[in-house]
Amino acid sequence: MNGRQRLGFAMAGFGQNLLHNTVNLYLLVYLVQGLGLSAAGIGVATAIVTAIKVWDAVANLGAGVLVDRTRTRWGRLRPYVLGLALPIGVLGIALFSAPDASEGVRLVYFGVVFALYVTLYTLADVPYWALTAATATDDRDRTLTIAWARTAGTVALAIVTIVGTPLATALGGEGHTNAAGWQRLAIIAAVTGMGLFTLAFVSTKERLDPTPPTPLRESLRFFVADKMLFVMLASGTAAFGRNILAVGGALMALVIFGDEKLFTPLGAALIGGMVVAIMLTPVLLRFTTRKRLTIISTLASGLLFIALWAVGYGNLGLVVALFLANGFAIGVFMVTQTAMVGDVADYGEVLTGVRHDGVCFAGLTFISKLGTALAIVLFGSVVAAVGYHQGVDVTPAMRDGIWAVCTLVPAASCLVSLLPLAVYRVPEADLPRMLAERRAGSAAS
User: Fold this and answer.
1) At what angle are helices 103-134 and 3-33 packed, to 10 degrees?
2) Hey, how many other C-beta atoms are within 10 angstroms of the C-beta on 439?
3) Those residues with Cβ within 8 angstroms of residue 51's Cβ, 6 or more apart along the chain or in another chain
4) 20 to 30 A Cα–Cα from 220, which one of 79, 171, 270, 406?
5) Shortest CA distance to 82 belongs to which of 163, 189, 173, 200?
6) Residue 223 has pLDDT above 70, yes or no
């Protein structure tokens, strides 16, 4: 990609994350305020969210197979971006537009709309990230494209985190957040976000694949037989503990520091470190391999989580500093992991002569969503185990329990995720030459 195309692709990622982070961060708040659910209803809604998150992870694999079997004049990937932007935006708004009906009807409405939303979002997300491999001209181009897109997505997360609640309050017109405010926030995020998302279709030019669609059996056989893809999946799944801060950060701040608003400086430090790291990673990769930098950043993240546990939560300034450093380590990992999945797709083409971008990048989004589901279950279980609930007097044991799950579990998760990488064997240095030779041979025949 040239600079203009890369910017368009990154802005598409910004738009995608503008809507999706609005849903991720504020949907549960809307369910409580907008739907006015009872305690039992909130429990049912939480179960619905968890079940659909698990379904979403599994649906990634189906999306990858479908994408690999697609052939159009615009390519295999870009049509999904263009065709699904509008339906995703409509469903995003619908999530914050529950009908005035009984609690049971509202829960059924929420479950159906949320399931449709995550399914279509996945069907667009897999080809979006697969474009980083299908449009790149070389390793540096791919790394820069990933870095720009990850930076744009992280900036969108920061904006939604910082501006979301104040804007929803202002849009609600009552001096506090309400259902109308959240709905209007969702409309802004959906219209702006999905409008920008179509730039991934407009700004990119996908290499057309002259081979016939991959038979379903062959796609499944590739997924099962590709050992390096399984190594990446195993490592990424084991690293699920990093997601605990994302799903439980606000509650952690409330329990430990007595004010959920204190997650703003903690989240800002984490996101700030990620943005800086994402922009610097292409420079760092000039001096080392993607695998080695992945290992270094993961090890650093694990040690920083241990340091957080060791220093405790008594010194907020030191905690913020460690969050900033950990954000840097996580940001490096976000770029190198995505690039390594692209390498797996390239290596698969070298070995078989057929590209499976859809399956490979479906694996990437699969482990991300499975990791989020595992983090929700684990964090929720610990919160229940320590006895915390609304209105209870917070004890030191509760604070210690929440702090441990937010630090020691991610630390152990990072360190365990390094084990599968010991058998990762993709020849990064020789891969461009091997891929060129394979393509030249295929063209000659």
Assistant:
1) 170
2) 14
3) none
4) 79
5) 200
6) no
The letter for the amino acid at 94 is: A
Across all residues in the chain, what is the average pLDDT? 84
Highest-pLDDT range among 190-204, 224-238, 372-386: 190-204
Of 32, 30, 51, 52, the closest CA to residue 40 belongs to 32
- Residue 216 and residue 229 in contact, taking contact as beta carbons nearer than 8 Å: no
| Residue whose entry in the numeric block shows the structure tokens 């990437």 | 364
pTM as predicted: 0.73
Q: Tokens for 239?
A: 């690293």
17-37 exposure pattern, b = at least 16 Cβ within 10 A, e = fewer: bbbbbbbebbbeebbebbbeb
Task: Provide φ and ψ at 409, rounded to 5°.
Answer: -65, -50
CA dihedral 324, 154, 5, 200 (to 10 degrees): 160
Cβ proximity of 271 and 154 under 8 Å: yes
Cβ atoms of 291 and 424 within 8 Å: the answer is yes
Q: Residue 376: pLDDT above 80?
A: no
Residue 211 pLDDT? 56
CA dist list (Å): 43 to 37, 235, 245:
9, 32, 21
Q: Which residues contact 364 (CB under 8 A, 6 or more apart)?
A: 129, 232, 236, 337, 338, 341
Listed in sequence order, the residues at least 6 apart from 128 whose beta carbon sits closer than 8 Å to its beta carbon are 12, 13, 16, 77, 81, 197, 200
